[in-house]
Write a structure and sequence with these properties.
Length: 692
């Protein structure tokens, strides 16, 4: 610690230059970091969807249909012309329509009406389109330009294109709202006009470096790219606030500013590190998910916390020593009261809050375990063009999803029987295979190459299944199960399936296992950090129960309100809320242990609440506003749910720490805090641990 402090003070100019140059280079590099918008890519390699997709790429030239186009008020011949022109658009690899299912030369009245109405209804034509992966944005834009305003484009590819268009602007928009809000809070809570800028520059440097160093990962998910800067700012700003306040305190003891900074670094590095560790382990827990998005997001956020810690302990001291005269010249009176008497109100609330927690903790725990999840992008969006087009198509043709079966080639009779059995499954509205489209009487070698390749590769036969379910939900997943089981009854494990519903079904199964594992790892790791910090078994349990109860209440609300949330929001929130807000509990407990050495327990809790209320209020306000800002600015359901849950969860943690935790500390402190909590924390070591 001494070496770090001395090095930082001695080489402050070099440090400033290195950090600023690194941030500048990182700002350039981050524009070259590839963003992955396809959640399917993050499924485990052993998942059925991943294996099926690999086979599809190896065996067939065409991929799954991933978009639908509805053209209004067209004749059959006009629709055929639209089909040809759609197929000619760069990035479109296949267009499927009615003529691929029936012989349109004969009158439509002679064909199966259910088949006809899947593609042509009330003079409106619905095309299934395959758009090449990676070309979604450009190709969808070209399709929209071609079909015009009166027609509609929807599906997985347009959803991805919309996310690509919105991600950068939404991150920028969120930061444009969040930064002024944070500056306002910091101005109200500090005594210098320049201090808020120092905090934001310090963490801003760390954010830029974090985003730029993602170049070494090759690519990151769009979700990581959109939420990581906001979360990093919100959860690590406290580190900079604490160090600067420690510097201010030490300037009252030491006339030399460098000596004051030396002692500020020494006295705060352990505390800031402990605070960073709780958040760090919460993020690291995400990396144990089998679903790869957890590792992507967790590693990025963990890296961000480490960089924020380094920036706070090395860059900020150098920056502060360079501008401390400006800090002195820009002093202003405090705008926020010191809340020394906050305990009066908080302790009045303690009894009803404790009773309410006792009453609701079991329902909250059970409710959050039963919360329903969304896994796809279909909920994104009624406020954007892709979502509106989806509704327009569904209003005319109903809900429809496509599923592809890949089965071993060779037994046409078996394919015919499988096709028939699948067609009888509820919610299956159509099946297209060689057996029922071309006919078993016509040998494959007599077909043209383009027709044969629709159904057969060297080793596999392809069967396309149409259903009338949404992409996900009970009906969709039950249909996927029945189709898969039917295929397995003929081909065993040699049958594979893919499609959006299948992908989401696999996500559901993976997430069910990830949920328990991630939460367990986060709780155990943070418990160990608390155990090491307090040298107590009881205190970590009290602190974890305090924050976990707030998490349970937060995550149970969707269940009791009859709504669903994105599964990523659920998983991330469980770890982020625990890792980020347990600091509030640590802060209050530290102050209580210090004060308890000189005061009776009630007087100690009174003083501790007065000392920490402002700090916890400021930190919780920033984190909560960050969450709600993300919620309001994001068009993606996963990012929006993370924001909403984080904003609301921070409020729950705030209430639990200030109203429930004091009661727990008093209950478990039975006369001698050292004996009851077995703490070895010295007064000098803990004095001043605070968030702000």
């Amino acid at each position: 610690m001494d070496k770090i402090a001395n090095f930082t003070i001695k080489h402050k100019k070099i440090i400033l230059i290195i950090f600023i140059l690194t941030a500048a280079v990182s700002a350039v590099l981050q524009s070259f970091v590839k963003k992955n918008y396809d959640m399917v890519d993050y499924l485990p390699q052993e998942s059925q969807s991943t294996k099926a997709l690999k086979i599809m790429k190896e065996e067939f030239t065409e991929s799954m249909p991933n978009a639908s186009v509805m053209i209004k008020n067209v004749s059959i011949m006009e629709a055929m012309d639209y089909k040809r022109q759609l197929a000619a658009i760069d990035g479109v690899t296949q267009v499927t329509w009615l003529d691929d299912m029936i012989d349109i030369k004969q009158p439509l009245e002679m064909s199966d009406p259910d088949t006809v109405e899947k593609f042509y209804k009330n003079g409106n034509a619905l095309f299934s389109i395959t758009i090449r992966k990676g070309a979604e944005k450009k190709t969808c834009a070209a399709i929209r330009e071609f079909i015009g305003e009166g027609n509609f484009l929807a599906g997985e590819a347009p959803d991805l294109a919309t996310m690509q268009e919105n991600t950068v602007s939404e991150v920028t928009g969120a930061l444009m709202i969040l930064i002024p809000a944070v500056i306002l809070i910091l101005i109200l809570s500090t005594t210098s006009w320049i201090e808020p800028l120092l905090f934001l520059v310090t963490i801003g440097i760390a954010i830029l470096i974090n985003m730029g160093t993602n170049i070494f990962f090759g690519e990151i998910s769009f979700m990581t790219n959109s939420i990581s800067p906001i979360l990093q700012l919100a959860v690590s700003l406290d580190y900079a606030i604490f160090l600067l306040h420690s510097f201010t305190d030490n300037r009252e003891k030491y006339s030399d500013v460098e000596e004051a900074m030396y002692h500020a670094i020494r006295s705060s590095i352990v505390t800031v590190a402990a605070s960073a560790l709780t958040t760090l382990f919460g993020f690291i827990a995400l990396t144990f998910m089998k679903f790869g998005i957890g590792a992507d997001l967790g590693l990025n956020l963990a890296k961000g916390i480490i960089l924020s810690f380094i920036s706070t302990m090395i860059f900020m001291p150098a920056l502060t020593l360079s501008v401390y005269k400006f800090i002195d010249k820009t002093q202003h009176r405090p705008f926020m009261p010191n809340f020394a008497n906050a305990y009066r109100v908080l302790l009045k609330l303690a009894v009803p809050v404790v009773l309410l927690v006792i009453l609701l903790i079991v329902p909250g725990f059970l409710g959050q375990r039963k919360t329903g999840f969304l896994y796809g992008n279909a909920a994104t969006a009624e406020n954007n063009k892709s979502g509106q087009d989806r509704l327009a198509i569904e209003n005319e043709f109903g809900k429809s999803t496509i599923m592809v079966l890949l089965v071993p080639r060779g037994d046409i009779a078996k394919e015919e029987n499988l096709t028939r059995d699948i067609g009888e499954i509820p919610h299956v509205t159509g099946v297209m295979s060689y057996a029922n489209t071309v006919g078993t009487a016509i040998p494959v070698q007599f077909l043209t190459e383009d027709i044969a390749e629709q159904f057969y590769s060297e080793h596999y036969a392809r069967i396309i299944v149409y259903t009338d379910t949404a992409e996900e939900g009970d009906a969709a997943f039950a249909t996927v199960e029945r189709i898969q089981n039917t295929a397995k009854s003929y081909y065993g494990d040699a049958a594979y399936s893919l499609g959006q519903s299948t992908n989401l079904y696999d996500m559901k199964n993976v997430v069910a296992k990830d949920n328990t594992l991630v939460n367990l790892i986060a709780i155990i790791s943070i418990f160990l950090v608390l155990l090491f910090s307090f040298k107590s078994f009881t205190l970590p349990l009290i602190l974890l129960i305090t924050i976990e109860a707030g998490i349970w209440f937060n995550l149970s609300i969707p269940y009791f309100m009859g709504t669903v949330i994105n599964f990523i929001g659920y998983l991330v929130l469980s770890t982020v809320q625990l890792g980020a807000t347990v600091d509030y509990a640590i802060l209050l407990t530290d102050h209580y242990l210090v004060n308890r050495r000189e005061l009776p327990k009630k007087a100690a809790i009174h003083k501790s609440l007065g000392e920490t209320f402002k700090s916890i209020l400021v930190s919780a306000s920033i984190l909560s506003i960050a969450g709600f800002t993300l919620y309001k600015t994001s068009s993606n359901s996963a990012s929006a749910d993370i924001g909403r849950l984080l904003g609301r969860g921070t409020i729950f943690s705030f209430i639990m720490v200030l109203c429930f935790l004091p009661a727990m500390l008093l209950i478990f402190d039975r006369g001698d805090c050292r004996n009851n909590f077995k703490t070895k924390t010295a007064k000098g070591k803990n004095e001043g641990r605070r968030i702000n």
